Amino acid sequence: MDSRSADPLVLGQRVVAILETGLRVATYKLATLMALLEHCVENLPEHHADELVVPIPELAHRVLDIYWPQIRPFDGRELRQSNDGRSRILAAANDLRKAAGLTCRSVDVAQLRAPAAYLRAIAEVGLCLAQQPLHRLQKLPGAAASDAFLYDDSFLHDKISRKTLHKHGNAITLKAGVGDGLARLAGLLRPTLEIMWVEDVRRMNRFLDENVPDVAGHLFGRERSAMAAVREPFKEVFGPHCFYCNAHLPQDNPIDHVLPWSLVGIDGLANLVLACARCNGDKTNALPAVRLIDQALDEARTGLLTEIADYLQWPVQRGRVIAAARGIYLGQPQGIPTWDGYRATQRLDVSFPPPWLRARAT
Ligand SMILES: [Zn+2]
């Protein structure tokens, strides 16, 4: 094993270096890396030095999910995500969106509504990823060979067929320590990737000058209007109270992502709560105290969420919240401050963890 890969700091520097070298002609490498980070957070290896298999269909699902809000028209126009404006990935996302209904809020919902179209989109995006960004991610401009510090990419090439891809398990394998390292780095790298992405999209879409403000909000913000659909059912079932401070809520209170949206883009019901504007504003992107996740995962709450999920056609994703929370908390140093309600902090301490936050073997 390459010992340099085991140090998360060195790993992070090398990831940033491959992104900052040369002008990107498309945002697909950023999307691929963002999807890889998410995968590592939600599939934290049992041991620090383990390899981690990343099935390409799972990666394709995440990439689709990242582009999903971005294919909405912005200022009435479709955003380009590459210099030449042509994109098989965006075309696949658009086809799926048409099949699932234009109001379809997420890829998970599209999967429920249009399973055949979903499988087609995943196959197409997976093949695109294997032929382009996964094959080129670790190759610096001008270099003949890849510097394969993340995963072996020797079987990937521009024309790889589905058949060859399947022969290789339709997956890439992150090298020893890389999965753990990327999970730890996710919170640091994700904002960097978002900044690069916004710059790229501004460059690729000339109409986005300085007068067009919230490009980042369009690309990565939560869709407030879409979130509004859960507000009334939540109030009916849980009562009109803030999940954090129990304050009585006005009509238009925020819906809060318990695990911050900026860290992991989970908008399954298990990750959503009613909040007052005061708590929501105070919490912003902070990592919540473990007890708050424990409360959000409460079994009685989950039972009620399942009923809301059926009614709204909106996934609960409790397992995903657990997996992401494990990846996040176990990757953080003990003692860091976490948000524990309005203007309150709690130092992270997983020595007596709730059952879902089982410690890893060392
Ligand atoms: Zn509150």
Could you please describe the fold and organization of this structure?
- With 362 residues, the protein is mostly helical.
- It folds into 2 domains: 3-220, no CATH class; 224-357, no CATH class.
- It has helices spanning 8-20, 28-42, 56-67, 88-100, 107-113, 115-131, 133-136, 162-167, 178-204, 215-220, 224-238, 277-283, 290-296, 299-312, 318-330, and strands at 52-55, 171-174, 255-257, 272-274, 337-339, 345-347.
- The protein is globular and about 60 Å long.
Radius of gyration: 20 Å
Helix-residue proportion: 40-55%
Give, in order, the helices and strands: HHEHHHHHHEHHHEEHHHHEE
% residues in beta strands = 5-15%
Task: Please state the average pLDDT score.
Answer: 91
Main β sheet profile: 2 strands, antiparallel
**Shape designation:** globular
The SS-based structural class is mainly alpha
Number of domains: 2
Question: Low-confidence spans: pLDDT under 50, at least 5 residues?
Answer: none
Major β-sheet strand ordering? 1-2
What are the bound molecules? zinc ion
End-to-end distance = 18 Å
* Separate helix tally: 15
How would you summarize the topology of this molecule?
Layout: H1 8-20, H2 28-42, E1 52-55, H3 56-67, H4 88-100, H5 107-113, H6 115-131, H7 133-136, H8 162-167, E2 171-174, H9 178-204, H10 215-220, H11 224-238, E3 255-257, E4 272-274, H12 277-283, H13 290-296, H14 299-312, H15 318-330, E5 337-339, E6 345-347
Antiparallel strand pairs: 1-2, 3-4, 5-6
Helix pairs in contact: 1-9, 2-3, 2-9, 2-15, 3-6, 4-5, 4-6, 5-6, 11-14
Bound molecules: zinc ion.
